[in-house]
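Friendly challenge for the regulars: who can give me the structure tokens for this chain first? No prize, just bragging rights.
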Amino acid sequence: MCRIMDGTGTLTIDNVMYTLSREDWFVFSPGMHVELQTDIEVTVRVQLILFSGVELVRTPNVWHTKPFDFPVTGKLEFSSNRRDLQERMDRLMYRSFTAAESENIDKKYLVHQLLIQLMTSVKPLVQPQVGMNLAIDYMTHHYTKDIRMHDMARLAGLSVNHFIRTFKRQFGMTPMDYIQKQRMTKAKQLLFSTDKIKIIAEQVGYRDEHYFSRVFKKNEGVAPTLYMKNKVSRIATLYYGLDDVVLTLGLKPVSALSYVQRVTHPTLMPAHQADSPQELVLDSSGQNYDKLKGLQPDLIITSDRMEPNESLHHIAPTAILKHTNQVGESLLYMADIMGRKEQAIRWIEQHANLSHVLQNRIHSEWGKQSAMFIRVSSEFYRMYGLHNQTGSLLYDDLGLHIPENYPSEQWAVEMNINDVQLYNADHLFVMVDPTAEARTQFQRLLKSDGWITSKAVQEGRVYDAGDIFFQTLGPTGRVRAMKYVAKQLGVALG
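First reply, four minutes later:
Bragging rights claimed.
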């Protein structure tokens, strides 16, 4: 919660700018990108309260917690008098609380009262923006169009000269500089695609691709055709396997996701160790974007499997890569853009050779055999089929077969505790999530009749899947996983 006490300036929330005045109120939620700029002559004084909370959800037998989305965020417009809000905020800010538990409960109670009053006092419908905010909002969301200054000045209710002077004083740049900055940020993101420069120029508001190229080179110091190859050296990755793709192409990412929260005993390859103070290993359950911003990446690469987060675009141009289980496709796509096709082709050839060797040796050792990958979590037992990374590993790379009864069109199947016998694979690779609940679920599975009577269990062909579920998403990890599975099956490469 933020209340503006005095001063003037601007507040930017997820790329939308607001001019500030006394008694403006805001609520910021996790993931928002917020920047405050004060006027040179008059600084801003604020009251700020940081709080956290979770939502309790009851299932038939147990309570669970999940992230709580506060229903009121951004700049608040009130439908009633603010006096009660101001008084409650002042009580929280200026009252001296001790460490006593009773006073801590009292403090939380006051916060709850204030939050409830915020929810009930905000106008049910957002009122139209007026003045400078309306002009800023239009430029933020329509920078790809032909924007005329006299139209923006009219939206702000100012003359053209007064609008430009006011904008520059508040934001430290002219309106056209702001529009150009938006266009260049978007252009750098679009350059991570196979679109031609002419198409990218049109997408960011330039009808003439040559003029766009001149503007881009003036701002970035290099032509757009060479930007990815010559200027992008600090790449932040925000999905499993993407850091591996970057490494395979001969670059070192400045960030990667940690497997620690996902795998009981992760085995990181040497190339993935955070052995540089500039490399950031992010918590996969809650990324620290403040630290990521401090790394100043040239480009952020994430996956369409990742929940979109607008705050990333404020750190660096962000490219969302379409997920595919065929690692070579992702590798070639990125190699074409980064000018590193030779490295990609080398890996593809090595992968094909290894696959051929292992398939022959597995078939020679075992003949035609079926295999199944099972994941045990606190909430489910899941069998994975053809259309996922473990299916690509087991069935495409290694030539094993999916059990006959498995529905081939399903990428995964939620199984009951006795369904292991239903599919009756020759080999089982089992991954247990690193939680106490998942381990309890696994113990239940081990005691079930379906498990005990299944072919793989009776013949001693059950293997710890380790971290191959995530490692298989990247090229180097895929090769490592192929060798790991082969070793579990008793097939040596030597």
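The CA atoms of residues 305 and 338 lie 22 Å apart. The radius of gyration is 28 Å. Your move, everyone else.
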